Each structure stands twice: as structure tokens, then as C-alpha cells.
TrEMBL record:
Residues 1-83 form the Acylphosphatase-like domain. Keywords: Hydrolase. It catalyses: an acyl phosphate + H2O = a carboxylate + phosphate + H(+). The lineage of its organism: Eukaryota, Metazoa, Chordata, Craniata, Vertebrata. The keyword Amino-acid biosynthesis does not apply. It is an enzyme of class 3 (hydrolase). InterPro entries: Acylphosphatase, Acylphosphatase-like_dom, Acylphosphatase-like_dom_sf, Acylphosphatase_CS. Belongs to the acylphosphatase family. Pfam families: Acylphosphatase (PF00708). It comes from Oryctolagus cuniculus (Rabbit). The gene is ACYP2. This is Acylphosphatase-2. PROSITE patterns: ACYLPHOSPHATASE_2 (PS00151), ACYLPHOSPHATASE_3 (PS51160). One of its GO terms (molecular function) is acylphosphatase activity. Its EC number is 3.6.1.7.
């Protein structure tokens, strides 16, 4: 299994532990993109983890959270890895 898959699996596990839904994907530029949905406090916990902790052996140079909005219902039922 390629190493990058293992790294985003940590993100999937943390999202499930926190209780948010959405997805995460490695990009060809060596960055990670995704979408997180859930109660605001849980989304903020996930954002904090992504910004400060991340996967083991990952290097976090910066984080950029965009297109934040309030939604009336979740668009995902779980958190997954996209390829």
C-alpha cells in the first residue's frame, strides 16, 4: 500500500472519532483536499487537528479552509477517502 494512502487513513480515522462526515483526497501537487460537514464545534475540532496535528510524519506548511457555509442537512453519511 502506498505511503500516502496510509497518511490520509489517519485523517479518516480522526474524522470518524470526532464525528464529522465528508471526504479527503491526496492531490497530484502533494497536497490534501476534502470536505468536512457536521456540527460547528466538531468541524472546528477537525480543522484544529488538520492545522496542528495531522497524520504522523506529515508536514503541515499551511492550511486553507474555504467555502465555509451553514447547511440545513448533511450531504454525506460517513467520512471516506477518495482516489
Amino acid at each position: 500500500m502506498p505511503a500516502f494512502v496510509l497518511l490520509i487513513e489517519y485523517t479518516e480515522g480522526e474524522a470518524k472519532k470526532i464525528g464529522v462526515v465528508g471526504w479527503v483526497k491526496n492531490t497530484s501537487k502533494g497536497t490534501v483536499t476534502g470536505q468536512v460537514q457536521g456540527p460547528e464545534d466538531k468541524v472546528n475540532s477537525m480543522k484544529s487537528w488538520l492545522s496542528k496535528v495531522g497524520s504522523p510524519s506529515s508536514r503541515i506548511d499551511r492550511t486553507n479552509f474555504s467555502n465555509e457555509k451553514t447547511i440545513s442537512k448533511l450531504e454525506y453519511s460517513n467520512f471516506s477517502i477518495r482516489y
